[in-house]
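Morning - iron/sulfur/oxygen hybrid cluster inputs below, output right after.
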Amino acid sequence: MFCFQCEQTAGCTGCTGATGVCGKQASTAVLQDEVTGALVALARTVRAAGMNGDARRTADDLAMEGLFATLTNVDFDDAALADLLARVHAERDSVAASAQVGAAPDYDLAMLWNAPEDARSLKSLVLFGLRGLAAYAYHAAALGYRDDAVSSFLHEGLAALADDEADADVLLPLSLKVGEVNLRCMELLDRANTETFGTPEPTTVTRAVEAGPFIVVSGHDLHDLKLLLDQTEGRGVNVYTHGELLPAHAYPELKRYAHLKGNVGTAWQSQRVEFADLPAPVLFTTNCLMPPAASYADRVFTTGPVAYPGMMHVEAAPDGGKDFEPLIQRALELGGYAAATDTTGTFTTGFGHSAVLGVADTVVDAVKQGAISRFFLVGGCDGARPGRSYFRDFVQQAPDDSIILTLACGKFRFNDLDLGTIGGLPRIMDMGQCNDAYGAIRVAVALAEAFDCGVNDLPLTLVLSWYEQKAVSILLTLLHLGIRGIYLGPTLPAFVSPGVLDVLVREFDVRPITTPEEDLKAILA
Ligand code: FSO
Ligand code: SF4
């Protein structure tokens, strides 16, 4: 196997051999490459056939599902991947037959992994960015929101991977276009979420668990959570979020369920400890699933793109509905805690762009009067590397008159801190999931308008932690917007070649993190 798509890749160069650091088996990595190669073939066939709109719907869905299944910590199940591969091949052949064009052959990913260094780096940037973009498009589609330009671009980007002539002049603009389309897709998902579930409101979330049966829901999928809340209502089973689902508590149409109680645990990399003794089942709707330890393997359920051999998978019916009864029965069997847990502390979330811009006048006045000196966006993915303590230390050392905006699971490094308030505003504001980076961009643009300057001229610094491919798509969005001086850590991606890093530093002033002390000194100088 060869895989170097995530931050924890072996030796910061690539996972090879029998098992990846994430627990992905070599057979699974090979199948994921085959699915990707088949999606490239489908994309080329669809483009040769000139397919658009509804006629392309099945191919669009397969591109979203297939790319999502190859993200880190999503699909560990060879049987599920083999089934997906067969469906992609069948669709390619059907498109070719109906349009009377040749069916493009599968693309061999070894061509990409063995390409000259800079081409390999840029094509990887495109492919991994497309994977993140596809995941966001998948979530929007689950709520009935699609954008033909986004779906069409998935095929355009995939098809380009097979172009052996493409050089940096083609691939660099293409990777920035991934970022441009990802912005459009995050805007679509923002609209899908807020039109379906209401505008997020600042909300305090308990970390204690009540006595009695309960279910923990992890991942990013608000639609799955809503389906489960409907099916558990009045059944004596409470529901708790985990990880990237914490921001669900802020949506009016979700928080109105009295049995959506609170949040269990922290970020994904702690699940093997946090779930070990849990007297409840856990539903994984998306990444980040780790190979379950024996202590709780009989309590893990998956759905959507997530799969793990031997774990119970909840399939969607043709109408999109899901039957969570086996999960509910498991919760009733396990029974939950006999008495409420005494976990102290709360999390606050729900500071989406509407909430922050709702107090824009207060914020602007506070900056003008010198009460707020700087904004930091400290966010992104969490992960297992020890170097990630940087992000907590950074937030703790940030000046007392600064505001910390955060999002995605990286917030769990410091969202237990009480840093006080400025002018009634909490100093740490959780804007939501990783896809809510769209909201942070909206806030930055609005502040720039209020101060009549460019985003790069604002007293704003982005400090991003990355782990997997959604973060890659968001980084490409920020670069597409011309945002300079982003601090990136805990390590640089293995797939960024020295030549490509040179471009990122020269054109975009991307800065690898050093120490909180050094970086803060440079930022505040
Ligand atoms: Fe985290 Fe995992 Fe949201 Fe990622 S749970 S690491 S960027 O999948 O997607 O932030
Ligand atoms: Fe290694 Fe990350 Fe790939 Fe898993 S996803 S095999 S840890 S590079």
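Note: The chain has a mean pLDDT of 97.

O.
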